[in-house]
Amino acid sequence: MIHTTGLTKTFSRGKATVEAVRGIDLHVKEGELVALLGPNGAGKSTTLRMLTTLLAPTSGSATVAGHDITTERDAVRRNLGYVGQGNGGGHNQRVRDELITQGLCYGLSKQQSGTRADELLAALELSDLGRRTVSTLSGGQRRRLDIAIGLVHRPPLLFLDEPSTGMDPQSRANLWEHILRLRREMGTTIVLTTHYLDEADSMAERVIVIDKGSVIADDTADALKAELAGDLVTLTAESRDAAESLASIVGRLDLVRDVTVSGSRLNIRVVRAEKALPALIRLSERHGIGIEAADMSRPTLDDVFLGLTGRSLRETAAA
Question: Which residues form the domain of 49?
């Protein structure tokens, strides 16, 4: 569905040249749900703008839905839907009318547009709001309308640029329920950007991390967490001296990736916590070091992001 090779974009600012995207290679299969993550200024928005033909690349090549983004722009646009960060519906327009207008823009007849509008209103539970003006909708209802606008022409590919930003947890869950159901029914390929890492973790089949204009990680969320972050085992020793002694011992084990000491507590990054924890307890007993408490936890995508970029995605989102 998406194939890019060496895609770059540079901007000139006075005498300076800014390399926003530095040779990105992306490969997204038909039907995939892929999350594109990166800190502010990483190049992901510029990449999306190139893939949606809103911005011409400086070099490299890309095809979207089998069409070249530079020589077949109209064909690319016919095959994708784009839901940006802002609301797409005109505030003073009625909900159903907005969908009909979108259908007319894509060449549907008025009857076809009306039928398609009613289908999407029903699918996204907006039928009762069809005659309401967009300005009277709640935030969650507006985002569902944005999804409907992006799907009017039945595109095989849908770009969602931070679709749930600013929504409360219940509205976010409701929106994703609709998105995933429509994907199952229509087989739509979805490329998602989000600052909510729990969304990327639970929804996406693959996570691509971009930083400084380049792809720095591309795999499933589980694989990235296992390979780049590791599980965390926390042991509380009898004293700080005991914790430091134990740290020097466990740090030599193959299953241990990293050890830090905070007071009497050891934070130990390991490959598999369920196997490492019993081994660490037995090791401490053999050396006569008492353990007062033990815990283990799985890594999050934010741990992965922090390890890759040295920054938390939540921190970059706030900035």
Answer: 2-224
